[in-house]
Amino acid sequence: MTGPGNRTLRLLSILQQRRHWVGAELAHRLGVSLRTLRRDVERLRELGYPVEAQPGVDGGYRLAPGAALPPLVLDDDEAVALTVGLQAAAQSAVAGMAEASVRALTTVVQVLPARLRRRADALSAMTVPAPGSASGAVVDPQVLVAVAGACRDTERLEFSYTAADGARSERLTEPFRLVAMGRRWYLVAYDLGRGDWRSFRLDRLSAPRGTGQRFAPRVLPAEDAAAFVRRGTDARSAGYVVEALVAAPADDVRRRVGQWTTITEEPGGGCRLRMETYDLSWAALALGGTGAEFTVLAPAELRDLLADWAGRFERGVRD
User: Fold this and answer.
1) Residue 69 lies in a domain
2) Measuring CA to CA, how many Å separate 238 from each of 139, 231, 233?
3) Are the C-beta atoms of 79 and 42 separated by less than 8 Å?
4) Which of 87, 190, 273, 307 has the fewest CB atoms in 10 Å of its CB?
């Protein structure tokens, strides 16, 4: 059964969705009688929310336009409990619960006083989950809030990202959607540095910061954000198939890296290198070990990795 405090919060949320609500419709949405609705409206007024009542057949309720609303409808203990509960629900595998929790968490954290935020953080930090109750990939709620806000506001987002091989890079993106899948959170975004769409695991993302620059959303090359993430995770779970053209005789390349790869001669000279791996670092080392010029044909992630390595190597030999 929904308690009065939770119902009052829901009433406030519904009233903010549009200018006017007919009383009967509002009572139906809350699952209460008109008499109970009137009591809940009075409780909102006592808390300082300016709810106006309009009599008549089409009468109902609305929040006064332009009124400054109090920061929170809950008392201290309720606010802390709600925040911690939303943080836990944000890791939930229950369909629809995680997404709704992040939206609510984004709203609540913005109005939570600093003293209550410290209490909520302390309680969350000192709570040990039971074995099997949560994923090992823990996402910082503040990261969730920042990324969700950037998606909502269509604001370009910068952050630090750690790839699967441990390589760190700075990314500038146009965030599109958050996706909860397989007890993990992913950000689907257009990577401006790579000039392509990417999905980023939020447990590998740190220091997200908005740039203040707005953008017009691009067309995602997939049915939806979840399909885009699923396509990428399915490919990664099966490993990577690496293909590259190497400007060297097949025998020379086979002698250098043949134990890890399949080498075939190319009609126009040189050879084709092919290997399957779960770690693209091995592919990068193999290509470097050929001692020859090469062109990566697939996958795109290997090109990204080599670009990151090239930058680090260049910086490492500077005087």
Assistant:
1) no
2) 25, 11, 9
3) no
4) 307
